[in-house]
Amino acid sequence: MRLPLALLLTCFCSAAHAQHAAHEHGVAELRVALEGRMLQIEYASPLDTLVGFEHAPSDERQHRLLAEAEATLRNIGRLFRLPAAAGCVLKTVELSSPWALARQAPAAEAEHEHDHPHAAGGHAEMEAAYTFECDRPQALDTLEVLVFDAFPRTREVRAERVSGRGQAAQVLNPQRRQLPL
Ligand SMILES: [Zn+2]
């Protein structure tokens, strides 16, 4: 069973936007939810923090930077580390990237790219959602966040976790990378 992508991302966007009128460059949002054997990780970052700009890519270099950021976001091992004892297997990865979507759209649709919800008000974000199934979820004690290495412009990750231990929020940074689950 998978949620429709649009529904999943719409829910995440609304929640993120309710908390912050506009995103802050260098600050990403992380949401981790553990229910039974299923672990869901959602990550949203200002595009500027990933690639250094937030406008539509205008040359080959900027297209390449976007493609590289997407490839990194799909490579979960570069972003997060889970306890090996938990035996988690990545089941799905969903990416939302405004300019990549605009690039693939027919010309007529590309004209509407300014209406894209992830590129409102002169800002743009990239979002990723990952679903894992874990053999021994009781071994999931911490999530180590590696995005500070993968995307060095990231200086803060505002994290929230929901698990059998309840709900908690924590701010991570390059010196503090462990999110207790
Ligand atoms: Zn921005």
Structure, explained:
It is a single chain. By secondary structure, this protein is of the alpha+beta class. The chain has one domain (5-180). Helices cover 28% and strands 34% of the residues. The protein contains six helices and nine strands. Strands 4-5-2-1-7-8 form a six-stranded mixed β-sheet, sandwiched between helices. It has a three-stranded antiparallel β-sheet with strand order 3-6-9, with no helix packed on it.
Distance between the termini: 24 Å
Tell how many strands the DSSP assignment holds. Answer: 9
Main sheet summary: 6 strands, mixed
Overall helicity:
25-40%
What's the domain count? 1
Bound compounds, each kind once, are: zinc ion
Residues in β-strands, percent: 25-35%
The residue-averaged pLDDT reads 83
Strand order of the largest sheet: 4-5-2-1-7-8
Which structural class best describes the helix and strand composition? alpha+beta
Question: What is the 3D shape?
Answer: globular
Helix run count: 6
Compute the CA-based radius of gyration.
16 Å
H and E order: HEEHHEEHHEEHEEE
Low confidence ranges: 1-20, 105-115
Which tags fit this structure?
34% strand, alpha+beta, disordered N terminus, ZrgA-like, binds zinc ion, three-stranded antiparallel β-sheet, six-stranded mixed β-sheet, 28% helix, 181 residues
Give a short summary of the structure.
Residues 1-18 form the signal peptide. The chain has 6 helices and 9 strands.
Helices and strands in order, then pairings?
Blueprint: H1 5-19, E1 27-35, E2 38-46, H2 47-51, H3 60-74, E3 80-81, E4 88-96, H4 98-104, H5 107-110, E5 125-134, E6 142-145, H6 147-150, E7 156-163, E8 166-172, E9 178-180
Parallel strand pairs: 1-7
Antiparallel strand pairs: 1-2, 2-5, 3-6, 4-5, 6-9, 7-8
Bound molecules: zinc ion.
